[in-house]
Amino acid sequence: MLDKTIKDLEKVIYPLNAIAQRIAMVVLFILMMITVVDVTGRIFIKPLYGAFELTGFALAIVIFFSLGYTQIKKGHIHVTFLVDRFGKRTQAIVDVITYLIFFLLVALITWQVADYAFRLHVGNDKTADLGIPVFVIAVISSIGILFFAFTMLLELLKAVQKVVKNE
């Protein structure tokens, strides 16, 4: 049963994170173009108006939309010099505990960022230069963090599966 649940979740979570990663790649390219235009403008004519705000927004999207995909590809740093000395079952149990704590933490962060987005919307907060509603970037960020939370849930289930199967 756990195998089927994991496979079903993979069919949803992997494509969501792949799409988010592609969006992050496009936004990173746009960020690069904004920076080039801004720096070139400073040298020759005048800087790009609102470049600082757009850069901040773009960085948030790139970071939060890349987290889940990076986790799927095992691109995050793991410090395992102590855990590697344990047996396979003990390592799996440590993984379950670690992924559980991390999943709960990421779920809490998702909730708090979404709540912050709601408060920004109610307060009608806007950026100083361009007047962009700040809640929009908070909502987009919470979506990226939610995808990461889904990925952490999947990793938790895989770790539980290893413990149950005694791998």
UniProtKB/TrEMBL annotation:
Keywords: Cell inner membrane, Cell membrane, Membrane, Transmembrane, Transmembrane helix, Transport
Domain Tripartite ATP-independent periplasmic transporters DctQ component residue range list: 31-161
Annotated localization: Cell inner membrane
Its membrane topology: Multi-pass membrane protein
Transmembrane segments: 12-36, 48-72, 92-114, 134-157
Top-rank taxon: Bacteria
Protein family: Belongs to the TRAP transporter small permease family.
Full protein name: TRAP-type C4-dicarboxylate transport system permease small subunit
Organism encoding this protein: Virgibacillus natechei
